[in-house]
């Protein structure tokens, strides 16, 4: 975890991290909480195959990932799924066909700061495989993988590995 030490309120070097969820200032009593952020991940399924992307940026550049991302303020998880699938893949979906499956905690490290997340997992079934117009700044490749060929070690994030372990067994 990056060590933040200057208080954004009083400017003094008196900011302390409690090793769990908040920074506090001994000088002016300012408190900054590192609350859990919401994120979505969508398993796109066609028959016995799933659609995964390959990350083109850190963290976990080069690893497989599910389409998705962080929930914006005042946005539902379903709206986030719809927005993220369009932003990343130029894929239009019907959000009423999203099937909520599970939630798992995760830690997303970005620029030396650990962000605790709650990852909400959805399934979206399609009748036919499709090609996509990738957002290359985020994704380097997209692949359809048979369920029995998914290698958990190729998946970027622990929450997705844990989710996929259960998903593949059902």
Q: Any overview of this molecule?
A:
This protein is mainly beta. The protein folds into 2 domains: 1-34; 37-168, Nucleoside Triphosphate Pyrophosphohydrolase (Alpha-Beta Complex), CATH 3.90.79.10. The chain contains 2 helices and 10 strands, in the order βββββββαβββα. It has helices spanning 77-89, 158-168; strands at residues 15-17, 22-25, 31-33, 37-46, 49-55, 64-65, 67-70, 99-110, 113-125, 139-146. Strands 4, 5, 6, 7, 8, 9 and 10 form a 7-stranded mixed sheet that branches. A 3-stranded antiparallel sheet has the order 1-2-3, with no helix packed on it. A hairpin with a 2-residue loop joins strand 4 and strand 5. The mean pLDDT is 91.
CATH superfamily of the largest domain: Nucleoside Triphosphate Pyrophosphohydrolase
Helical stretch tally? 2
Mean pLDDT: 91
Overall geometric form: elongated
Q: Helix amount, in percent? A: 10-25%
Give the helix/strand layout.
Layout: E1 15-17, E2 22-25, E3 31-33, E4 37-46, E5 49-55, E6 64-65, E7 67-70, H1 77-89, E8 99-110, E9 113-125, E10 139-146, H2 158-168
Quick overview:
This protein is mostly beta strands and 170 residues long. The protein has helices at residues 77-89, 158-168; strands at residues 15-17, 22-25, 31-33, 37-46, 49-55, 64-65, 67-70, 99-110, 113-125, 139-146.
